[in-house]
Write a structure and sequence with these properties.
The chain is α+β, with helices and mostly antiparallel strands. The chain has 14 helices and 12 strands. The strands form 3 sheets. It has a 5-stranded antiparallel sheet with strand order 7-6-5-4-8. Strands 10-11-9-12 form a 4-stranded antiparallel sheet. Strands 1-3-2 form a 3-stranded antiparallel sheet. Strand 6 and strand 7 form a beta hairpin. Helix 1 crosses helix 7 and helix 5 packs across helix 7. The longest helix is centred in the first third of the chain and has 21 residues.
Length: 382
């Protein structure tokens, strides 16, 4: 099988986009401006014919494009002629022609937005929508390469985690099977349909390779630059985040979809901590929970932070799942100390104790690292 490179695919799609835009623009408005297909090709489109493409094949390509734009009513692109008489085309109004052509236009501002989305957020876009935006991505790339916005993009880094890291997944690099899986999970989520699947978990006791998971997907979530699906697992009667790339053997199920209310899978807790001024500044620039407030302490660079934080319920036991929030707080290191809730304070203290042990006792590295996920997936914290 001949493999076509990404750049070659883009080149072909770009040429087709230019051809379509030129074709639509060359057709006049009103019956008195009608034009034959042969005239369109001769006067406006002949330079798009590929070197080894026959005239008949090229004509069929043009015919397929123009036919796809024909309108069934009296507005839009119209055609005259039946049987053996040459068909002639015209736009019913300048508005309909403008609307069609504008789909191929790309302002510098729009191009900037499309480039940013494609580079950093493409995996959050449902595959069928991403595919329909291919023309926009191509045109955006062409516009950006010729404008000063290219310099702007080169001066921007998107580092939501505080360091240069973003998803390496790219829809254009997916295999056909990967793309089909991606599309299926998005579709099941939007349609609220159950599906069965296998899952490779980092927790050995939760690993499932037999395809017996029965999931009702609630929403698609971007967590730490990884695309996950929050799903209700019928057999366990619990909600859990599943990395989409680890789901396999996906099949639609006839079992009734189980919808879960927000209050059934998450709970709010009072959050209190003491933090340094730089941490205060950070939390003032982002949305952290509800009613976040700060009050001074006896030290001018330390503040009491109070808020209401929403935690997902743990998939394995009764209580909050603090994994992601604890990881998030970890980036502030010794510039913050948690006082409430008690379960979060205890977990951070446990992690601090384990870190001290690892850094002071080299022989403990492997055992602590290997057991870490299992400990966090159980109720008891050793």
């Amino acid at each position: 099988m001949i493999q076509i490179s990404k750049s070659e695919k883009r080149r072909v799609l770009s040429e087709k986009t230019d051809l379509t835009a030129t074709l639509l623009n060359a057709i006049g408005v009103g019956k008195n401006q009608k034009i034959k297909l042969s005239t369109l090709i001769k006067e406006h489109l002949s330079h798009y014919q590929r070197p080894r493409q026959s005239s008949e094949a090229f004509k069929k390509d043009i015919y397929r494009i123009i036919t796809s734009y024909l309108s069934d009513d009296k507005s839009g692109l119209q055609v005259l002629g039946e049987g053996k008489s040459p068909r002639q085309y015209y736009w019913s109004s300048i508005e309909s022609k403008t609307d069609a052509i504008e789909a191929f236009s790309m302002s510098e501002a729009r191009a900037f937005a499309f480039q940013f989305i494609e580079e950093y957020l493409s995996t959050l876009i449902p595959p069928h929508i991403y595919k329909s935006l291919t023309t926009d991505f191509i045109k955006a790339n062409e516009v950006i390469s010729k404008t000063k916005s290219n310099k702007y993009l080169n001066k921007l880094d998107f580092n939501p985690m505080g360091y240069d890291s973003f998803s390496k997944l790219n829809q254009e690099s997916f295999t056909a099977n990967e793309l089909e899986k991606w599309q299926s999970i998005f579709a099941f989520t939007f349609e609220e349909s159950c599906f069965t699947a296998s899952y490779t978990s980092i927790h050995s006791k939760f690993d499932n390779g037999d395809g017996k998971l029965l999931l009702s997907p609630q929403r698609i979530v971007l967590l730490n630059n990884q695309i996950t699906v929050l799903a209700y697992e019928h057999n366990a009667g619990a909600l859990k985040f599943f990395e989409i790339r680890r789901l396999t053997n996906i099949k639609k199920s006839k079992i009734t979809f189980q919808s879960v209310d927000d209050g059934d899978y998450q709970e709010k807790h009072y959050f209190k901590a003491i933090c340094h001024t730089w941490v205060k500044h950070y939390f003032e620039s982002i949305h952290l929970g509800d009613s976040t407030r700060f009050s001074p302490t006896s030290h001018q660079n330390c503040w009491v932070l109070e808020s209401q934080i929403t935690f997902p319920k743990h998939f394995n036991f009764e209580g909050a799942d603090l994994f992601f929030f604890a990881n998030f707080l970890g980036m502030f290191s010794d510039s913050i100390v948690v006082e409430e809730p008690a379960f979060l304070k205890e977990e951070l203290a446990r992690r601090a104790k384990q870190l001290v042990e690892m850094y002071q006792n080299k022989d403990s590295h492997l055992e602590i690292i290997a057991n870490s996920p299992e400990i966090m997936a159980t109720k008891s914290k050793n």
